[in-house]
Amino acid sequence: xxxxxxxxxxxxxxxxxxxxxxxxxxxxxxxxxxxxxxxxxxxxxxxxxxxxxxxxxxxxxxxxxxxxxxxxxxxxxxxxxxxxxxxxxxxxxxxxxxxxxxxxxxxxxxxxxxxxxxxxxxxxxxxxxxxxxxxxxxxxxxxxxxxxxxxxxxxxxxxxxxxxxxxxxxxxxxxxxxxxxxxxxxxxxxxxxxxxxxxxxxxxxxxxxxxxxxxxxxxxxxxxxxxxxxxxxxxxxxxxxxxxxxxxxxxxxxxxxxxxxxxxxxxxxxxxxxxxxxxxxxxxxxxxxxxxxxxxxxxxxxxxxxxxxxxxxxxxxxxxxxxxxxxxxxxxxxxxxxxxxxxxxxxxxxxxxxxxxxxxxxxxxxxxxxxxxxxxxxxxxxxxxxxxxxxxxxxxxxxxxxxxxxxxxxxxxxxxxxxxxxxxxxxxxxxxxxxxxxxxxxxxxxxxxxxxxxxxxxxxxxxxxxxxxxxxxxxxxxxxxxxxxxxxxxxxxxxxxxxxxxxxxxxxxxxxxxxxxxxxxxxxxxxxxxxxxxxxxxxxxxxxxxxxxxxxxxxxxxxxxxxxxxxxxxxxxxxxxxxxxxxxxxxxxxxxxxxxxxxxxxxxxxxxxxxxxxxxxxxxxxxxxxxxxxxxxxxxxxxxxxxxxxxxxxxxxxxxxxxxxxxxxxxxxxxxxxxxxxxxxxxx
Length: 684
What we know:
By secondary structure, the protein is an alpha+beta fold. The strands form eight sheets. It has a seven-stranded mixed sheet with strand order 18-19-22-17-25-23-24.
């Protein structure tokens, strides 16, 4: 976890910023490079064959290993909880997880309080006989999610609830016997001596500053017997996506002199530019769905889900910071929180105002074209007016450090870094197509008769979505080694229930798309990318571009899609039934949410055969799990290429400073260390 890596990692001689607050110290093992250092490495036997050793995890663990882990976890839980019947159980908190309430009995997705049906589930968990006697005030809902899996008899809401033992015993003393006998169980019943309350980032940093003798933690420096007062370190933050915004927030709160530079426009003007694109087909190359305040995630679904751990202090601090700046409080409880573009725009406006109150200088239309480097260290940046105002000239600005927080579409920045011999390496990402269905069809597939409760996002039940991962290619292998070499992951990406397909091109000659939705998810369409993982092996035709081979791989298929669409940002599209049959029999396509038009095209000829065949196989497999997924109403759009950064900028694990250029701190999704709003904000 490295919320304050930018602050804690800056080593600016002869001064430095203070170390980060303890709860948010960088995790040396948090980065991708750190993680791969501990992966099993191939070994070679005497005959030259490669022997691959991999630790079995999850469901693949051996039964004996599972039992050993279970015993260990049970013992740790017993040690954490006071002994049964002891006075220690008269205080503290118990966390109850997996509390199920039938959907037919629950007040609905927007209710985050304690309802009578939830009290019934709590009473059952602690074996208390009369649920109505339990005081609601003693319980706090920590998480609420919706489970509509077919294996269940009935869809249900699943809760995680904290019990305040002291409050419960004061309000209902007769619960003591049941609390005294409560037995810890991993992932279901766990004891905590203190309530887990994460603060927002601003509060954490303010506490840290109050505990410091000096706001900046900077002492006077003595050189050659002379003493002179310190000055604030000057830091440039490039990019105002989640990583750049939170880096500016941390550095500004700690007292640095921060300049935030964004090549695009503030959200108000950015919204107008996107409107002009949708209505008049005018693409502003520096202000669009990818570039501008808030980054690419602003005009997307605003998902706040992450694979780095929802309950970690860093993630919770980011979520609470969002709430402080205007996000609805239910994102702290919702099992699949999302904001939607309409909620992100005012949030970003509030974020900007706070940064300016801190003294952060924010410059829009400011594209960083080059770095000023002396003796292997960044000394400043070259900035141009991306709005191309008459008479504008490039500016050379001096800084002590540069935090590089560009997004995954800043291809010109990647080229500039390569010219400075910054360590770059190709990174796996995913490419594919975006599939769209009527939302009512997805509701029906996922919820059956409960689909009527959705009511375009205004009902008791959340708008239906799906998340699918398929492994393609195992059937062609003859050994475990072949499986590892030849299988690929095909999965749904950025699924937008009640959303629309949008254009994310940054160049008129290239065509790529994504999905977005508003907070209510009230559109009549559901869309999701179906993508396949590609890696450096797939980039061999572009190896002359070195570490930028993945970028050229993306460009190749974006140009092909533009040609297929016929120009004017018209998207090539194909019925799913035709795609899996390698034909184009339909000349009149079903309706699409994409506003700039679709053109019947042979998308099965867009990608190399191995990608097309994998997508076809996965669609057929999905239809077996979700009957109706393959239908005449389902429409594929091309092309989805910018799922994550196509490269990674090497950095030190502890300081996050570039391994090849001192004073440069690459962070976030564009640097190859994050994938989404939350992980990018936390990586900062």
